[in-house]
Amino acid sequence: xxxxxxxxxxxxxxxxxxxxxxxxxxxxxxxxxxxxxxxxxxxxxxxxxxxxxxxxxxxxxxxxxxxxxxxxxxxxxxxxxxxxxxxxxxxxxxxxxxxxxxxxxxxxxxxxxxxxxxxxxxxxxxxxxxxxxxxxxxxxxxxxxxxxxxxxxxxxxxxxxxxxxxxxxxxxxxxxxxxxxxxxxxxxxxxxxxxxxxxxxxxxxxxxxxxxxxxxxxxxxxxxxx
Length: 226
Prior knowledge:
By secondary structure, this protein is an alpha/beta fold.
């Protein structure tokens, strides 16, 4: 099987990390997956380093550029399904009519209601399958009127890194000013309201009353406003 994965985001976030893990897993299992991504994007750069075949498209009007490239790729006849990883990619696949030729799948990782304007409804109708990463996300799709028989739940995994050495741990604590007797926990996520870091901040005073040697480290990027 040769799947074509499409992701037009320039930033590196959880969805792009999952896309790369999927591509690597497909390659390891003998599937020559290919990727359509914007030129210079983090996903494009990292996928190329992993030996993934990448079709780069312009970052100017990326949906239009990707639609043209997808149409050209499908004309070659080697791709057997199209998997879009985010909303812009779905728009591109829909614009070129990919759903009329091959199964069209879309990942879904957010529990927001589906948009109900005519263009959004047309794009969602084109999908053969929504792949939700949790029951909650799947339920949000059902609540938005998407047919349950066209939803699959696939819990996504992560690569488990090796445990740091004692020297690495000590060096990291020194870098962030964390004492050896302090308990540190953290959250790595984009700084957007739906990620809920505010709940950690709001809960911290209560935690400190019982465990005064607790420290929190928040790590993440701020999405571009352009």
